[in-house]
Structure formats: structure tokens, C-alpha cells
Amino acid sequence: MHNSIEVVNQSAPRGRFRVALFDFDGTLSLIREGWQGVMIPMMVDVLRGTPKAEAPEDLEEFVRGLVARTTGQQTIYQMMELARQVAARGGDAADPTEYKRRYNGLLMERIGHRREGLRSGRIAPADMLVAGAVEMLSALRERGIRLYCASGTDEADMREEAEMLGIAGFFDGGLYGAVDDLRRFSKAMLIGRIIREHGLAGPHLVTFGDGYVEIENTKEAGGVAVGVASDEARRKGVDAWKRARLIEAGADVIVPDFRDAAALVGYLFAESAP
């Protein structure tokens, strides 16, 4: 087994996959790298203004845990939780959509130049992709695996960014993101629908993600979960914080990225030993 591939669960089923689900941000795309560094300070700032706010360092620790637990969810759910936490501290909570608008505005200040650079051609798509992403998607498609992509980012933005990166065409199963009607989409709902529509058993599904939510949802459905502990800032190596959270969520395998796509595919399809 290649030393970049950490097998956490030696007994996870292999070789029967028919469908693969990919998270988007941090798993494939680096366009939104640093989003936690926008969301966490924003949430801390909001909570510091409440009557029963903890000390700043305690608030930051709390918010980091909150963001870790909800990474992979639609942004609006994270903002709904923020509103609940404001109320719990005696504050007058704004509507979650207002918090979401504030967060998205701050995020665009950080990443807008990346989107514009991709549009203009000044930035190459490869510079905004997790290493080996195209090779991994290509290898799975060549094996006849149906590919889906799901994101907590607004669907219109995620689709646009997937087109910018040149990977939208890989997803013959579709690209799915956050929509205004919360009853229409969640990663758990999508996983359930994929399994029903294709008549799958859990071991037919493999999910790749860097967030707690998609890993946990996949394991609840009986699928196999590959945690992508990508260090988005350095663009190489394992992010230790992500790794710990992904293992806690139930990841069967941990990889830093897809540089060793051939070895990872070989392992997943039971062509090489753990």
C-alpha cells in the first residue's frame, strides 16, 4: 500500500462500487480555501456582542468545534446554528439569511480574485484543484463508475466553479448544492436517493470528502468513506486537524489528496493489499 494512503478500517468492503460521491470544496476545489478563516471570526464577532458571551478565547474554541461539526452542511444550517447560539446567550438573533449574506460578502472579499482569475484565464484551473483530482475522476469514469458531486455551497455558485475548473463534465450523476428550499437538498437526502434509484446496497457507494457531514452520512448508509485531509493552504501533505475529524466521523481511508490516484483506485477496487 502506498504510504500516502492510510487505511483506518481494514475490514471496509472493497471492489463492488458502482457510484462515487464527491464533496466539492476542499475535496476537489481550492477556490474557497480559507473559508473557515472567514466564518469563524465572523461567528465569534457576532457572539461577542451577546449579553452572556464567554471570554473571547473560549468563544473561539466553541466556534471552531461548531464549524468542524457542521463542515459539509449547507451554509444556511451553519447560520441557523449561529442564530440559536446568539439566542442562547441572551442576544437578539438576526435572521439566518442575514448572517449568510454577511458571511458570503466577507468570503467573496477573500476569494473573488480567484474566481475572476479563472474566468479571465490568468489562473489555470490546475492551480485551483486539489492535486490529482482530474486523474482520480478520470480513473473512476474509465471503470464505469457513476459520479455525483454534492456541496454545502449554493448550487449555482458550485456549478459555475466546477465549470471554471473544467470538471463539471465528469459528473454524469449530477452536481448538487444548497438551494433556498431546505426540504429539497441535503447530502443525506442525496445519498438516500442515489441508493434507492440505483437499487444499491451500501458497499456499492464510495464517498470522497473533507468534511464531517458527508463522511458520517455515508457511513450511516453503509457506504465506504474516503476522508480527504487536504492541506488547502500548503497544497500538499495531511491537515492533522482534518484527519482527526474525518476519522472521528468514520472515514475508512485517509488521503492527503489524489496525487496517488492509481494506487488509491487499485486499493478501493481490491487490486492491491491494504
Structure description:
The chain has 274 residues and is α/β, with parallel strands linked by helices. 46% of the residues lie in helices and 12% in strands. The chain has helices spanning 36-48, 56-70, 75-88, 96-120, 133-142, 155-165, 187-198, 212-220, 240-249, 261-268, and strands spanning 6-7, 19-23, 146-154, 174-178, 205-209, 224-228, 253-255. Strand 5 (205-209), helix 8 (212-220) and strand 6 form a beta-alpha-beta unit.
Notable characteristics:
alpha/beta, Rossmann fold, 10 helices, globular
Give the secondary structure arrangement, pairings included:
Blueprint: E1 6-7, E2 19-23, H1 36-48, H2 56-70, H3 75-88, H4 96-120, H5 133-142, E3 146-154, H6 155-165, E4 174-178, H7 187-198, E5 205-209, H8 212-220, E6 224-228, H9 240-249, E7 253-255, H10 261-268
Parallel strand pairs: 2-3, 2-5, 3-4, 5-6, 6-7
Antiparallel strand pairs: 1-7
Helix pairs in contact: 1-2, 3-4, 8-9
Main beta-sheet annotation: 7 strands, mixed
- In CATH, the homologous superfamily of the largest domain goes by the name HAD superfamily/HAD-like
Helix content: 40-55%
Helix and strand succession?
A: EEHHHHHEHEHEHEHEH
CATH fold-level label of the largest domain: Rossmann fold
Please report the distance between the alpha carbons of the first and last residues.
6 Å
Poorly predicted spans: none
Structural class, from helix and strand content?
A: alpha/beta
**Number of E strands:** 7
CATH architecture of the largest domain: 3-Layer(aba) Sandwich
Tell me the overall shape. globular
The top-level CATH class of the largest domain is Alpha Beta
Rg value: 19 Å
